[in-house]
Amino acid sequence: MRFSLVIIVLILISCNKQKEADAVPEKPKVFTVAPDILQAFPDGQRSFASSADYYSDKNFIIDETGRIFFYGRRKYPRLVCGEDVADGSVPIPEFINLHPSEIIEIPQNSIEDFIKLNTTKKEFEWNFPVIASARDTFSSVPLEKLLTQTYKHKKAGHIIRRMTEEEKLVMRYKKSGERYDPDRIEWDTTKTVFPAED
Fold it and tell me: Are the beta carbons of 165 and 90 closer than 8 angstroms?
């Protein structure tokens, strides 16, 4: 009788271990890109935004294959004014004169170290990365790590939006290695705003 009881207990234990071994790892979160910049803010849809809201001092690009790239920019003021926001319409991204040499690829296994070194320094009043995606929906474990690290900062937020036309074009030149000259490109002024000439 005792022997039978021991056998049954061993069978139950081995079944439990098998279930643990067969446990499916948690699926990465699926991110959905907002249809426009007004809906890209984490606190919900806004009735206003400016051309400068497309960028931050910390900008990440996730390409079609899930690779993550980074470029910095001067810190744009997040104050909103001007006629481009007066009627609540979606603003067009401004031209920022981005060049392929300014964009660096972050190795997938180094994302946390990169963020710690570059996006949580004391000089940043806000830790507010902008994430631009080539796809409308995607999953990215490195991006989850990026956002987890971002929100360790006491003042944090983020935007996930579609890549701008300028970012798409510059990324194409970066990957191809071709010489990039923005003055030789016929820009679509319905998709990129250029500063007024004096």
Answer: no
* pLDDT on residue 26: 63
Which has the minimum average pLDDT: 40-44, 86-90, 119-123, 139-143?
119-123
pLDDT digits (tens, 9 = 90+) for 105-127: 998 888 778 877 765 555 445 67
Can you tell me whether residue 110 is helix, strand or coil? helix
Tell me the pTM.
0.76
How confident is the model at residue 133, as a pLDDT? 94
Nearest in space to 93 (alpha carbons), one of 54, 38, 46? 54
Exposure string (b/e) for 53-71, b if CB count within 10 Å is 16 or more? bbbbbbbbbbbeebbbbbb
Residues 6 or more apart whose CB falls under 8 angstroms from that of 81 comprise: 50
